[in-house]
Records
---
Amino acid sequence: MVEPISISAATIIKGLIKVIEEVRKTHELFNTEFEKLKSLLITLEPRVESVRDFDEKTAHHLSRDKRLSEVRQQEMAELLQKLKECDLLVKKSIKVPMWNTCLVRVYAERLKEQNESLRNFVNTNMIIDVWEITRTTRTAGTPVFSGTAVPEPPEITVGWVKPVEELKQKLFLEEVSVLGICGLGGCGKTTLAAKFCEQVKDKFYKISFLPISRTPNLLEMVSRLWRDLLSDVGKLPEFQDVDDAMNLLNSGLKEWKPERGMVLVVLDDVWPDSEVEKLVIRKRPGFKTLVTTRGGLNWLDHSYQVPKLGMEEAKSLFFHYAQYSDQGRRRSKPRLVEQIVEGCMRLPLALKVIGASLKNQGEWKLKETATKIATGRQTVGDPFDQIVGCLESSVESLSDKQRDCFMDFICFPNNKRIRAAAVMDIWVQIRGETELGAFSILKDLADRHLIEVFERRRNEAWDEDEGFGDLFVTQHDLLRKLADCTSQKTKKTRLIINQTDECPNADLTSEAQIVALEMGDGKKNFDTYIPPIFPCAEVLILNFSHGSCSLPSFLKEIETLKLLIIANGSSTAAELSRLPPSSSLKNLRSVRLERISLPILHTFAEPFLGLQKLSMVLCEVRGEESSPVLEVPNIFPEMTEIEIEYCSEEKSSQVFDIPNIFPEITEIEIDYCNGLERLPTSVCDIPNLRKLSITNCHDLIELPEAIGRMNKLEVLRLRACTAMGGLPKSISELKKLKFLNLSECSNLSSLPETMGGLQGLETIDVRECSARLPVTVMHLKGLIRVICDEETQKMWKPFLVHFKRPVLLDVHKADVSLDFLQ
């Protein structure tokens, strides 16, 4: 019987780690490269173990070709080959005589090249966001939810059972290749499609769910389809245009074997005037396409009209979101409730939003709302505008600040995920909110279902000390239209300019406080805009989707600018050119860059004297060997916060070398930084640091012993630092530390004996961290809460009887998921 690839890979990893441990003292000249290899192997080990466990669990249920997708099988095979090469090279290296310096240099260079090759493979193919995150762990009979996962249906759905059965009957007809789900905006088309996918998942080998929107990037959509369906046959080609891309995709699909299973592609929210028909895969056995649309598509094989909810179904949905008790439902006046439900056209979206706006409200408020809904619908004839009109009462119930914040969402691209931290930055900079205040507003809007907030990873134990980097926001286009209509009725403080728009007149630009430029492919010449174009702008958002972008020259003229957001929507980091001189942006307080490739920052001619916060998400930093990547003290002398997420940089240890230069900095966040092996000791001398977050840094080996000097530190997050083997003894000197997150630190063998010195510690998160506990944990006098899983609960439970006051064991099921494999 052939041994599974995952078991072979796991065996080689364990063997290599053992060999490196044994030869460290006798082969000191190779120690640098051996340690780098060991760190990388420690990072890899839990991932390979997960695959191995998955193989073993499914061995009796699935055939070999059904356990993992072909893409993942190929990547595991490539990984095994690279591990074998490493194993062979290490064994050859330890046989080299240490007196033979020439041969030692040769093998040291080979080890370095092999390490880089393995690291590049892992960083490209095995980080969590590349091994797609989905909601469903694959078991026998379940499909690979690929590229874009099927969205999770709302918490409560009604009236979908019969429609799903009717859809099945239509889609599985031999003559139907493309089926449309048609209906008004907000009628539940996407929910019905998601429910349908849930019900038929055992019939399809792959399900690819693509949100389209009104202005889709078709090339990006084809790229996703290629990654979903053909990534196992080769790398993503460079497409000339959409027609070329689809020709290549269809050519590649000729090799698709029917026995691999059926494929379902869902195109969600397709508008009549779009060219989305080009994405449809026709005349190929086993391929089906489901399209959600408001109508007007003449290329569908068949269409299905979403039925209107029955009155009782609609009322139950309204009561749910209005949070009526059974007694409250009985006491409510049926005619009044039915008037509101009919005013909402029995549309699930409207019932959800209006219901949420009426929580804990009396009968007089229901009467007022029913009247406003009726009035709003009577003023317009178009069904789309009627829906928006009936939703207006939900905005009127907001406070002035909540309404302003709701309207701010129109400044971000439509039908795209918005990072919550980005919109919260706006509220902090110009709405006068604190970070927690901004989060409170975000939560209020979500509770009213005017936006939807979700997390990058499931975290049932979330609290404010966890930060906001994992939060994203989406908004239905009807609610975006509602925000736009509301904004049009107020002072023109928001201005959105599309790539095709002409230069706006002074009446529009003179009052604009937030300006959003949709720069598209980056070819639009905004230099025709004559300064002073935006004299009152405090926030400028530049959105584009291209490999390079030249910033508009008028940027240097916006002296009032406080927040600059530059976001690249393409799949690769874009290079910026024509960066403005810092002397012209004296009021700039925060800069947020997303998927940007930066030059060495010390090449700026002058420092940004007022900049307090720099956020880099999915960025690349270009540096030279002879100079540090970030000479932060000279460029940002007043900075108080740095966020760096998902960044790629070859000399990442230099990025964070910030000795004694930020007397006012209070928070540092580092997320997914590859290559960060050690935190510079000088960071420990930042006098006012309150929060230090180093998460998903799989190369981090240790923290500096001097960490005890951070005498004002209150929050320390070390989540998923899988290579870290221990904590420094000086951690006991962090007397003000309240929150410590060690979750997913799988290589942490034990906590230091000095742990008992953390007298101020209130909460510790040890999920998926089985570090041995010293008896001194009984001396944690301030401990209130231990966040743990079922395994770590067993380790902490014996100590609880020794605490003088109750300590909550907050047990959560370990999120042991193979989602990243799918």
---
Amino acid sequence: MSTISIPVRCISVIIGLCLYGMKCDDHLQPEKIDTIPCESELFCDGRFLHAIQLSGMFSDSKEFVDRPLRVDANVVINEFTRLMGRDKKIVPQNLIPQMKNLVDSYFLPVGSDVEEASLLDWQEDVPLVRRLRDRHLRNWAAELHGKWKEFGRKTGQSVIDHPHRHSLIALPYPFISPGEVTGRFREQHYWDAYWIIHGLLISGMNQTARGMILNFASLVDRFGYVPIGNRVYYQNRPQMPILAVMVRLYWSHNVHDAEALIKETLPAIEREYDYWMTFRAVDITTADGRKFTLNRYKGSVTKPRPESYREDLETARSLRNRSLPGVEDKLFANIAAASASGWEFSSRWLDGPDKALSELRAEDIVPVDLNAMMCLTEEHMATFYKLAGVDSKSTAYMTKASQRGDAIQAVLWNDAIKMWRDYDLRTRKHRKGFYLSSITPLFASCGSRTLDLMDTHFLRDLLASRDIKKALSYPGGMPVSFVDSRDACHSCQWDFPNMWPTMQLMLIEAVARNSEMREEAANWAQNLINAIHGGYMRHGLMFQNYNVNQSGYYGRGGEYVVQSGYAATNGAILRLLELFPNILHDGNNNEILDKDEKQDLDDHPRPQPHAQPSINENNNGLASSDQPAIDTGETFQFLAQMHTVDPMGSDHSQDKVLEHDKRQHDQRSDNAHYESPLPSKRVRDNPGNNVGCVIAARFMYTASILLILVIIHDFY
């Protein structure tokens, strides 16, 4: 027998095995799957999706995955296998006609899974219109109010009867779609809906707003979080949690059933919050040794996004070291994380304006806006539990909000430039460059326990910063960034020269809360009104984003063309008019009426949509429907030969394509009550270099295995 006793050896083995499995430097490896995966072979993953998306039949990948099935999926898979065999992944050119026929035979037209909804709470008269002094703005507000009827949608009955034939996830209540029925987005989206709900409440459409909030609660019931939108291919990309913020907005409008809505949605709000603190939390230690917990985005997939399948594969083609294990998977995870942020895409997630999209690092970045909204959620939850009479939870969430405010100031605030900055987990430093998302703590009023963000002295210092001064210097509004990334990243629409009215409104609304700064905020609001109203008078349309260099002109697209008839912009403008009803005026006409003067809303003709001027600066479109397929087994050889088309060539027609139906769904659908199988334990990330710890742990593990062999040898 060896001189080393068996008990000592056994203890050594236990220690080694424990070291191997334990956390390193307080780092817990997250669960491999922390979202609900989509299992659809047609809409999310599989050989059929791969072949169709690379066939060139659809210029936009989203168009295919939004088409409902006429039959069950197995029928389509069997027919596809009969045509293609069991190995081919690319449709040969000679099979393109048959494949087009297969798609047309077994799939319904895009948009046929939603129906027009009668919004019964829409009324002709809206108080805001009567409050506005300027006649032209009164007419404009009335027209925007009228557009809610054009955007009203509800889940089609076929989605409820045959859910597996659709990428659309059934929602129990009617909703407002983000854009025109002929546009790209026909589902209910999460982040945009905040501004839509705000506009609905201003328009007095409380029940439609309430229904949209309950739709999001139903998605939390099903997944434990709210995805980007109610599509199965979105379901593994949780978006910033703002359900509590929406409910608080509803309550702030003094709606009679607001407290009932709070009680009904509070379990979903808490469950959503718990998800983010379980799967998206990260611990950060500052230079002075203080530890804070903040949140970030993560990608839970390692495959192309189904709605941008070909585009993601094209991005992956430019990867360096693409053949190395995990390199492509990491890119797709970062793409998913950036997509979940709503900023898809932006130089914000890159290391410079010359970096390509294939160098995304969204998972490594702690975003200012995400954490500001988490802080606001914690504050609202404290309020809701106070109303519910649960004082212990109210106190706990108020403490969490205070702690997050401290964390935001300690980790994300840069006192030298008087501005917040995203934090880089890899470099452990602030990210360079200003993004309009940096001002979100002001919107959320999320200060530290020693700092009131509405303090006039603090606000004046911040507004005198180089970032804000430069952002306010453009004629068409405040750009979302100062980085023109078009040369290296043609998909980066969240960059200069683009302006999102919703983002600028966040700063205006925040500063307007301070009575001493309200006049300055009103001036910014007037500049924004001049741009958006001027564009509306010129084109007859509202847009998703605008060009800051040309007041009133739409901005540039990214993966898709700029969306028109944009409901979130409509809601943001209604809110802007509500903020300053007696100050704002039509900058083009400068004709202000007395407050009490009555005007006929019909004396200002509705502008008709006009054709958009051609913009050729960003030819990032994809293959047209007649693009021939390449008979090859190599995906990237095929992608390399695909041509581009002008993305601005799409039709902006507002013609309706859905049949009118007055049926209302007043109950949550049966398939909206699945329990999330996600584990409930805390999974916290602590970034840092854990290589030494991992090596030591694996060394101990190896030594333990050797000790086991010695024990076995001695025993026998």
---
Amino acid sequence: MTTATSPILLKWDPKSLEIRTLTVERLLEPLVTQVTTLVNTSNKGPSSKKKGRSKKAHVLAVSVEQATQNFLEKGEQIAKDSHDLKEELIAAVEDVRKQGETMRVASSEFADDPCSSVKRGTMVRAARALLSAVTRLLILADMADVMRLLAHLKIVEEALEGVKNATNEQDLANRFKEFGKEMVKLNYVAARRQQELKDPQCRDEMAAARGALKKNATMLYTASQAFLRHPDVAATRANRDYVFKQVQEAIGAISSAAQAASPTDEKHGHAGIGELAAALNEFDTLWYMTLWYMSLWHMTLWHMTLWHMTLWYMTLWHMTLWHMTLWHMTLWHMTLWHMTLWYMTLWYMTLWYMTLWYMSLWHMTLWHMTLWYMTLWYMTLWYMTLWYMSLWHMTLWHMTLWYMTLWYMTLWYMTLWYMSLWHMTLWHMTLWYMTLWHMTLWHMTLWYMTLWHMTLWHMTLWHMTLWYMTLWHSACGQSHSTRSCSARLMFIPNHNWIPMVPESVTGSLSSQL
């Protein structure tokens, strides 16, 4: 059993070529198949074909070389990432490279001469050496995985010792929390290793150990807590020690099963728990595989149905297109043939008639030719019009309908727009003209009233002036005395409102009288 202070020791012989995992078998299977096929080339006796270089052997040799190169690349990467078996992995990679080169030379010589038994024997020995080297490399890589699992086991054992050495309940809770985290990681790595083991008994032992570890880990915290609360009670100590022993034995069983070795203590096996855990794991695997296969089957069925429907529609479309193309080409060729035949017949008949008409009467020939050409032109025009109308009628009808619809909608919108514009323009112009007319009428009325008032005032003034002048002349004409008219006017009774006339005026008036 591995303890917390002991180093990581493998129960494996690195020189042994025993394959213990399914992964190594799956990786070796393609290479073994290719090498076996290459070795068995031309092993069925002489061929009836001409002897010479075998293309199949060359292809197989290239495939073996490519597979070897893939193993080398993966091995170098594993050796680079490994810490415990780095030197062994590097040596195994170099051995594979060496044996691969030997195999390449031997297979190339054998491919050039597949009937040679010596070259066949050399290639068989090289193939066995190559398979041994590749197997050793894969086993070392598998051992590296086991070393990582054992490192996890050692971490879990150290965490278990920490839980055992807890001094109080708070310290126990913290250390058990760390122990739980490491247990989750260990369970994941152990489950993956369990699926890769080749031996069913080792898988059962791994499942039993995982079940026992899971079962006792849940009781570990309770037993340790009871012991910390009652350290003087012997039963609590015995209970805690028993649970710790069960957990340590489960860890040891996982270590032994991971290395495909028999458990050290057959008395404390966990057959019942192992059978139940194995059955549960098998049930989970079967359920998930069934679900995956059903999903894959449904997806495949859906894709196949979609593919067949697509293929059917594509075939139908191509057949329809082909038939339509064939029909149109046949129609075009028949139309061309009939038109050619018709034109040639028409040309020969026209030539004959023209010769006859020229030999007959020129005027009658001219008249008949005119009539014939007119008839021929109208018939050709009618046939061509009929053909074009038959060929383009639907397209022209749809285009005409579309353009008329577009035209009518455009005309309707333009008419609506122009009507709206015209009504708005008419309304604004009417409003403007009415405003202008009212303004003009008001100004003219004002002007005419002003003119009338001024004219009336001027006429009144003129009439009053005329009246005063007439009155004044009449007053001056009635007097025959030498007195001046101004003097008389001055003494007219009840005429005090008449203004005084200056003497210069009266003197001038007197001299005139």
---
Amino acid sequence: MERYRHYGTSYTSSPGAAHVEEIHSEEEEEEVEEVMYTEEEVEEVMYTEEEVEPLLEDETQPLLQETEGKTVPVESKNGKRTEGGGGGDAGGGPKYSVFTWFVVLGLLGVWSSVAVVYFDIVDYDTVIARAKEFRMNFSEVLQGKLMAYDTDGDGDFDVEDAKVLLGLKEAKRLHVGDTPEKQTAAVPLPPPAEDSFVPDDPRESINPYGDEANTIDTTGVLLAERQTEESTVESAEYLTSSKLTQEAEPVVDAERQPEAAADVDPQSETPKQTEAEGTSEKQAEDKLTEKAKKKKPKLLNKFDKTIKAEIDAAEKLRKKGKPDEALKAFERLVQQYPQSPRARYGKAQAEDDMAEKLRSNDMLQRAINTYREAAELPDVTSDLLRATLKRRAERQQFLGRMRGSLATLERLVQLFPEDIGLKNDLGVAHLLLGDNNGAKKVYEEVLGVAPDNGFAKVHYGFILKSENKIAESIPYLKEGLESGEPGTDDGRFYFHLGDALQRVGDNSAYDWYELGHKRGHFASLWQRSLYNVNGLKAQPWWTAKETGYTDLVKVLERSWKTIRDEALAVLDQNTGHFVPEEENLREKGDWGQYTLWQQGRKVGNACQGVPKTCALLERFPEATGCKRGQIKFSVMQPGTHVWPHTGPTNCRLRMHLGLVIPKRGCKIRCTNETREWEEGKILIFDDSFEHEVWQDADSYRLIFIVDVWHPELTQHQRQTLSPI
């Protein structure tokens, strides 16, 4: 079973804490500025002296008109009693002397405000009353918006709160269960959320490794492989132009809307039509109910809501693609509020993002540990508990901690026993460990309570097929694919359903292969490999000149007798070097193999039995360094038939050197062309295309198989592609 590929070398962390805090403060200031008025905006509201005087003149004008001709005693703020409202035209003569006005003019500037108030030129009572009313209204609006940033629990947002948010002051410590008003009892664990709960999508963050997925090979083992990009596969007769298999999150088909009924005459409406309308209404109601279930997950407990502003500020950094700054922010939160589940979950997510940024296994292990810590805290909400443990299981699988992932999923299933999706994930975890029996029990349990669950069906069908229960596997694979449920529209299941149908002689296999091709899982009807590099030349048969490996071909053909003699010596010793084919590709017969290189490495001390052959090959890294191929001897006894099948990747070409070939009865078909081997001659084909072998001769057939890199792969690709 191929293991998940790990991250590369871990690197040191980036910018220091001081820089992080500075940026973090700037982010928080931005949030405050969204709700606070700027100084310019406040100045626009405040009255200037020039604006106040005409305003008061307008308001006092009616009063002056009403009292015109009368002398009304008025007491000013300085205690003096005057008659009239001032002005030289009023009865009683001028109110102020020339000297008084001279003093007023002389005191303008620094003393202008004192003079204006002393001589009661402006009625400041009215102005101050209006200013107070404005301030109160402004304060109410502003406090309503800033209550979320109340960090000291005094019920409003003030300077002290701003200092806390800017990192200039330590916040008042609250304990779990505290509110700004009073301390309450701890909140018990809420009941499990709806089955349709979907945790935070990790793809919102920068995630270059979000495409890894589980894959099943032809031997009945669930593998892990990251898929490459899309492109067009070019060839002459076998030109294809489709997406190759993309192993990412399954695409959920859009919900099928009931077709709108045609307008009919109400008098001609039949009971059947009425029933159809009722069914349509019921479907609409069910759809609304389903949408209602898909509510936003509740990740904050009662205490976390009191620090929501700080959590949101740190989360904002993470979602902006600044995992290092987000990690610092969440670490401060965890230090201040060690019992906060949401803060610790955010820390785990930030560590998760940093692991991807640094390609660090150590950092990823830190994230896995922090996810566990978050799940073990008291008062964690059920939605957060589910999201935390589910993500932990995924990252454990990615890091190759299959047994740890299995234990995490088992705990999840215990906590949420009604969640079918978690049970399906548990079944996949068993398959990743090669525990088909454990997976089979899980899917049997799922199908017992949800017999129409498509995800469980395709996986259960796969397990049956791996047990060589070909006919029994077909309905499960077929019905699972037809369900269209998430996780079923996958090239692996089209591959295995078509293979099963071929083995029972059902030509509808090619209909499923064609459908898989149209859905973008296969390069073409014939080329059905699942691990591909896109854009490589695709044709079933090749010549030595087309490959560019003419030197290798010449050496093999010139030395074929030496290679044959060494192989026969090993074969005659009957020491167990030739082992039976283990990929379940034979319909009948006996097929043995003796492997020298696999995945770009020598196999044990296999070369000791054939030293001259290995010495010849050492000169050709395109063969010995091919991490997606093998170099081996293959012996096939009479009466053997190999089912039509395809190799796993388009990254290699396969050379067959004939060593011992009976005169008739041995042949190989690749796509729709059949050829025969010749002793001392090389056949070259692309085994990602469908091929089939018959051995109907009277004696055994012995060939030497050498896999080489596809000639169009770059040196960088050859070095970085994962082994198969």
